[in-house]
């Protein structure tokens, strides 16, 4: 089983034996990899009951909950890492979500689709409509992605909050690409951040 | 009576008095229990199932009085979610009850029934009795402890008070403390029993009568809390009972009236009114945080078990928020915990009924 590219990046960089919270853990793919390959103590939060059911059946401790409200119930510094993959753009307040991630986790991994990828830019430029791409397959009216962002936007937010970028990775068609031109060329980005 | 799953029905006498939260001790305690499935050579495959308020040890075998299938027959058995081909499943009648374990109808040392001389017990006292049974059976560590409603309270209490005795903790449709509303409904039931002239201050065992009318009303009031409004509307609506028009009297005109009366009536044939008083009292006294210095997270500080809490979206007796507060406490204690709110139309009783998702998650959790 191969992990989604952004999850593979995260899995490869979580220190062995860490305590990890995967927020929006889905069917527990990343949690299982972290547990089995990194010896991590991985916990999850997921809003979809069918996915929680799958996780429980895989022996993964997952709480059905809404990241927008339920992270508040975790004490400060509970985890070595808080992970939010492809979810930041769906949260009610991404800025507050970042604060919560770095409250419950000493470090955080955040991955998101880059709305400044050239295909998105061209689609908007030529068609004059909200882009529908492979990475962003929903229409504007039914997409869960209510806060689209670009790599540059994310850098700006981190800078404004005084959050440190420890490492970052840029992905195009599942392959890592360099930093140069990433805001044009990357479909997704992964950031490892800390206070 | 043919049973596809032959249980071992047993009873033991505890070798020592059982200390109680009230400060008293209960002498000569008998515990009636059933087991299903083989105990493994390493004694590592035992699952304790804790029953609810009016439940009993007849988990997956016909009830000796009503002849109905065991209360969790759908969940426990060969190949079922709690698979007796793999697990040794134990279910004991709680103390204070009336199906073979020591309770108010049992004889005190003077040879007469305890009646109201029976000491007030708590959920933790019930759990102490369960642990004493496990000691007697030579089971040091449970694969899992499982229960819904009051069974779930025992499950949480066992995990908090005997953290070394269990590896997996599965609490369904339950709470860590009885709310004012919970206590209020119980008090209605108790007052109904005590208002029945046949109750006679609990000393009715030697008479020909028992407070059946009061107990039936108690059961009727409680039964409403086990169902959901949508469930009641779907099942009964305003439909009339075997008549075309309202009777302009106080017979059971409506199907729901007839149903509740039947529930109340049949209950009295299998349950002792004093047991109902004592067990509801134990539930009302339950506040797991209070037992542990006021902070629920501290109750679970010593636990190394994996926890799973399940609630139902139509359960207004122990609503999802109650399970969530337990989950938050477990989080704060750093315990590995899963939580799932299932959607089911049956209200609190959902844990006993046909909810396929519950079957799947119970199996998944126990087999991991």
What can you tell me about this protein's structure?
- The complex is a heterodimer of chains A (195) and B (368).
- Chain A has 195 residues and is α/β, with parallel strands linked by helices.
- In chain A, 35% of the residues lie in helices and 25% in strands.
- Chain A is built from eight helices and eight strands.
- Chain A has an eight-stranded mixed β-sheet, sandwiched between helices.
- In chain A, strand 6 (164-172) and strand 7 form a beta hairpin.
- In chain A, helix 1 packs parallel to helix 2 (29-38).
- Chain A starts with a helix and ends with a strand.
- Chain B has two domains: 8-178 and 287-367, Alpha/Beta hydrolase fold, catalytic domain (Rossmann fold), CATH 3.40.50.1820; 182-280, Rna Polymerase Sigma Factor, Chain: A (Orthogonal Bundle), CATH 1.10.1740.110.
- Chain B contains eleven helices and twelve strands.
- Chain B has helices spanning 123-137, 150-161, 180-195, 212-226, 229-235, 255-268, 273-285, 288-291, 296-299, 320-332, 356-367; strands at residues 8-13, 18-19, 25-26, 30-36, 46-50, 76-77, 82-83, 88-92, 144-148, 168-172, 306-312, 337-342.
- In chain B, helix 3 runs antiparallel to helix 4 (212-226), helix 3 packs antiparallel against helix 7 and helix 4 packs across helix 6.
- The mean pLDDT of chain B is 96.
- Classes of the chains: A alpha/beta (195), B alpha/beta (368).
- Chains A and B meet through helix 3 and strand 3 of A and strand 11, helix 10, strand 12 and helix 11 of B.
Topology:
The complex is a heterodimer of chains A (195) and B (368).
Chain A: H1 5-13, E1 19-23, H2 29-38, E2 41-46, H3 49-57, E3 62-64, H4 67-70, E4 79-85, H5 94-104, E5 105-113, H6 118-127, H7 151-161, E6 164-172, E7 175-177, H8 182-185, E8 188-194
Parallel strand pairs in A: 1-2, 1-4, 2-3, 4-5
Antiparallel strand pairs in A: 5-8, 6-7, 6-8
Helix pairs in contact in A: 1-2
Chain B: E1 8-13, E2 18-19, E3 25-26, E4 30-36, E5 46-50, E6 76-77, E7 82-83, E8 88-92, H1 123-137, E9 144-148, H2 150-161, E10 168-172, H3 180-195, H4 212-226, H5 229-235, H6 255-268, H7 273-285, H8 288-291, H9 296-299, E11 306-312, H10 320-332, E12 337-342, H11 356-367
Parallel strand pairs in B: 5-8, 5-9, 6-7, 9-10, 10-11, 11-12
Antiparallel strand pairs in B: 1-4, 2-3, 4-8
